[in-house]
Design brief:
about 375 residues, alpha+beta, FAD/NAD(P)-binding domain, D-Amino Acid Oxidase, Chain A, domain 2, 2 domains, eight-stranded mixed β-sheet, five-stranded antiparallel β-sheet, 9 helices, about 30% strand, elongated
């Protein structure tokens, strides 16, 4: 990737799960595609620091991109995992109300899910909840049978293999430092082992946490179309020993996200998270002092938690475009019809359910181009 300038039809910036899915879709459409990734491996940021959940599409506002692309993406993802034999499991999920005041929230979820085309939710009584998950205490619950888990790294490796099988290339250790929009498309200056210059007709900004900064550096993109980037940090704790859960368990959501919930890995081990901490810089340091907050949140639905079994796992950052106290923002898939720059698609605020929606996002980007 070093040396003289190269020309390629399409460049995708960012080799997270969404960037790789986009590159795959474009390569399958016959385009010549290069994916540029600043890190030394694929999926090193948001894509590898999340709950690895295949979401059903319950919570999101009707008609939003999150709702539409989550439901379509879930179906596409299950098909893809079956076809490619990628490790995944339809575990199902319980959403639980721990007191009567929270039941109305479950009722809203049930109605919202129906609006979004999720028609398989089932009401559970307190006795039903205990039957499904004996360790969980709740007054009512909803069962979401189409929620599942996935080996996200195996999925990303498969997407990369598809890109390369159709003539594409994933270039690691290649940070984009400058983009100029030209009459022919875009000139990119990259910093890898040496200075790299690329010329492309189409450019997809799938840089995740860095997407607003990347778009802000393109002179021809009006500043009004570049959202402010907010970083929401989440901690995860694992539960040592045997898991008492056989499904995912979620409390009702709060205004910061879906709350400290139980997820499982494909070996059946349980982990809790994420919490919410607004930060100003990208860092993945683990703050052990947040343990007490986890214990309090978890014990609302899992009262027998032994805090000594909680072990620090990892942290992740959500690439948000709405800040503290603001309503959650929808995905932003921004093409020439919005910002006026031909051949450019910006992806902003692709947080959860971005993993679930990735294949559907990719199809939407292809249509936008």
């Amino acid at each position: 990737m070093t040396g003289s300038a190269q020309s390629v039809q399409t460049v995708v910036v960012g080799a997270g799960v969404v960037g790789l899915a986009v590159a795959r879709s474009l390569a399958l459409s016959g385009r010549e595609v290069i994916v540029l990734e600043r890190a030394n491996a694929i999926g090193m940021e948001t894509s590898s620091r999340n709950s690895e959940v295949i979401h059903a599409g319950i919570y999101y506002p009707a008609g939003s991109l999150k709702a539409r692309l989550c439901v379509a993406g879930k179906q596409a993802l299950y098909r893809y995992c079956t076809e490619k034999e990628i490790a995944h499991q339809r575990t199902g999920k319980l959403i639980v109300a721990v007191d009567s005041a929270e039941v109305s929230t479950l009722e809203r979820y049930y109605a919202q899910a129906a609006h979004n085309g999720v028609d398989d939710l089932r009401w559970l009584s307190a006795k039903d909840v205990l039957t499904f998950e004996p360790a969980v205490t709740a007054v009512r619950g909803l069962l979401s049978p189409s929620t599942g888990i996935i080996d996200s790294h195996e999925f990303m490796l498969s997407l990369q293999a598809d890109v390369e099988a159709h003539g594409g290339l994933v270039a690691l250790n290649t940070a984009v430092v400058r983009i100029a929009a030209k009459s022919h498309g875009f000139d990119l200056q990259c910093d890898s082992d040496g200075e790299t210059r690329l010329r492309c007709q189409e450019l997809v900004n799938a840089a995740g946490l860095h997407a607003p900064a990347l778009a802000g550096g393109i002179d021809s993109v009006p500043a009004a179309f570049v959202p402010h980037a907010y970083l929401s940090k989440g901690h995860y704790f694992t539960l040592s020993g045997r898991s008492p859960f056989s499904r995912l368990v979620y409390p009702v959501a709060n205004d910061q996200g879906l709350g400290v919930h139980v997820t499982l890995d494909l070996a059946g081990a349980a982990r809790f998270g994420p919490d919410t901490e607004w930060v100003d810089t990208i860092n993945y340091d683990f703050d052990e002092s947040r343990r007490d907050g986890f214990v309090a949140a978890i014990r609302r639905y899992y009262p027998d938690l032994d805090p000594e079994r909680l072990q620090p796992a990892y942290t992740g950052l959500r690439p948000k475009v709405a800040g503290p106290g603001e309503p959650p923002a929808d995905f932003i898939v921004q093409g020439a019809a919005e910002h006026g720059v031909a051949g450019l698609v910006n992806l902003f605020g692709i947080e959860s359910p971005g993993l679930t929606a990735s294949l559907a996002i990719a199809d939407l980007v292809r249509e936008s181009l």
